[in-house]
Amino acid sequence: MKIAIPVNEKSMDTSICISFGRTPYFMIYDTETKESQFLENVAATSQGGAGIAAAQALVDSGAKALLTPRCGENAAQVLTAAGMKIYKTMNDSVSDNINAFVEGKLSVLDEIHSGFHGHGGN
Amino acid sequence: MKIAVLSGKGGTGKTLVSVNLAAAADKALYIDCDVEEPNGYLFFKPEGVETEKISIRLPAVYEDRCNGCRKCVEFCKFNALAYVGNRLIVFDEVCHSCGGCMLVCPEKAIYERDKLIGEVQRGRSEKVTVITGILNTGEASGIPIIKRLLEAGDREESELTFIDCPPGSACIVMESIKEADYCILVAEPTLFGAHNLNMVHELVELFDKPYGVVLNKCMEGENPSETLCLEKGMKILGRIPFDKELGILNSNALISVRESAKYRQMFMELLQNLKEEVQHETVVNP
Q1: B60-101 pLDDT tens trace
Q2: Does B141 sit within 8 Å of A118, measured CB to CB?
Q3: Best residue in A78, A84, A114 to probe B by mutation, most B CBs within 10 Å?
Q4: Model's pTM, two decimal places?
Q5: Partner residues linked to B3 by β-bridges
Q6: Which ranges form a coiled coil (chain A) (predicted)?
Q7: By CB atoms within 10 Å of each CB, which of A27, A52, A111, B19 scores lowest?
C-alpha cells in the first residue's frame, strides 16, 4: 500500500512539512516494497486552491493514505472522495510516523481546518 | 470626479469622511464599496430605495457528457476543480467565475448556473444619491458586487462621487479605487495607524493615483501618521479633531454636517481643499 507524507526535502532523513497544500514535496512510500519516491508539489506555488491541486496529485499518484499534521477542508473533500484515509502525524519524523502507521498506531485526522482562504487577499 | 476614501485599517473614519464630504457638497453620489459591512446608509437613511440582486456564474457539470479528460482541471488557475472517482468536483468559493472551464471543455459538459451573492441598493438622501453594495454573509469575494456598484455609479453621471472603500489594501480595495481620479487616505494618530497609512500609501503609489491624507482623531502631542506624511511628503488635506461632540453625533448615526454649523464649516473647508487639490493634480498630471 502506498502512503503519502508532505516533506520538506527530497531525502530519506527529511522532516515532515507542517503544511499539506504548500509542502514542497510529497514522499510516496510503499509499505510492501519499503521503497520511497518523491513527488514535487507543483501546487505549492499556486495562487489559490493549493490544497485542492495537491490532493488531486496525490489521488493520481495512487496513494491510499495520507500522513499529515494538518489538512484543509477542500483538500480533505478531494481525498475522501477518492477514498483516501487521512492520518494525523505524531511528530515531524518520517520514520517514526511510517513505523507507527504500519503498526496501526496512528489516529485518523479528525480536525479538518476550514482553510486560510481570503485572509490577506482574495 | 471620483474620489475614493480608503485606509489601511478599519475604524479610522473612512465613512465619517466620505459621508460628510458627500453631504457637504451641493450634489453628490456616495457609493459604499465596503460590501462586507456597509454602514454609510445608516447615516444617510436613503429614501425610495431600489434593489438589484447580484449573482455570479459558477460551473456545473452534465455528468453524462463528462469523459474525464481533465482539460478543465488543468486549465483552472485557481484550482477550483478536481476530478476524483470519475467525477468532477467544483469548489464554488475558490472559483473566480472566469468561465474558462466551460470554454475549454471539448465535450461541452460544463454549463454555468447563477448563484446569488448579494445586492446593490440605490436611494436618495437630500441631494445625495446613495448606492450601497451588500455581500451576503459567507460569500468568498465582494469583487463582483463592487464591479456592479461602480457600473451603477457611472450611470448616474454625477459630477462628484465619493467611493467609501473597504479597509485594508487587498484586491477588494484595488477594485474600488481602480477608476478613482483621486484618493483620500484617512489615518489615525497612532503607530499602528501610521503603519497602515504606509500600506495604503504604497497602494496608491503603485496605482499611480493622486492622493491626500486626512488626519482623523487628532489630539495634542505626537501624531505618528503626521510624522509619516512629513517624511514621505504626503499632502495633508485636513485634520479632524478627536472630539466628543463629533463622536456622539457619529455614534448616533447622524451626519455631522447636517446637524452642526461647526462641523459643516469644517467639512466644507476640507471639501474646498480637496477640490483645489484635485484641480491642481489634473493640471500638473493630466
Answers
A1: 999 999 999 999 999 999 999 999 989 999 999 899 999 999
A2: yes
A3: A78
A4: 0.79
A5: B162, B182
A6: none
A7: A111
